[in-house]
Amino acid sequence: MDWPTRVKIAAGSARGLAYLHEDCHPRIIHRDIKSSNILLDDNFEAQVADFGLARLAENDVTHVSTRVMGTFGYLAPEYASTGKLTEKSDVFSFGVVLLELITGRKPVDSSRPLGDESLVEWVVRILDSLTLNDVDLTNGVQPGKSQMFNAANTADIRQFQRMAFGSQDFSSSEYTQSKASLSGRRDL
Length: 188
Hints:
CATH topology: Transferase(Phosphotransferase), domain 1
Largest sheet: 2 strands, antiparallel
Order of helices and strands: HEEEEEHEHHHH
Helix content: 40-55%
Shape: globular
CATH architecture: Orthogonal Bundle
Strand content: 5-15%
């Protein structure tokens, strides 16, 4: 899959997730954002699907306490450990989907060497060992596919990585701005 198609899928998925979190009243927390729950039409337009685990969150509540459910490899650590579900749980899961799009790897792959089975832990280890300016986003991409990346796209990728795996205080307005950045790309 070429890079513009991957960006298009990411943008469509972000629009769907933002709709659930910002435009629905009460808000909808999906609770199972993963690749197989993002459906694509013939034009690669993304649709968020499978609301079987979804929970409603009234506008005046910060979280929903619930039994932890979802798919291993996509669960936000704070949700997995506390059972407190927020939109950030979905955003973390969306970050895993983005990493899948960027790297071509599964979120959990037991055929990988010990310590590299978890995509998130592998990426965090790489990012921890490098400064942001040193990160080679082609590292880990399937062999022969590295030409799909170019400098014009790395800022968008880094912004989404920060949103999904970075600071805990990433605001919903920054999320919306990131979504708009990918959605408004002219080079798709």
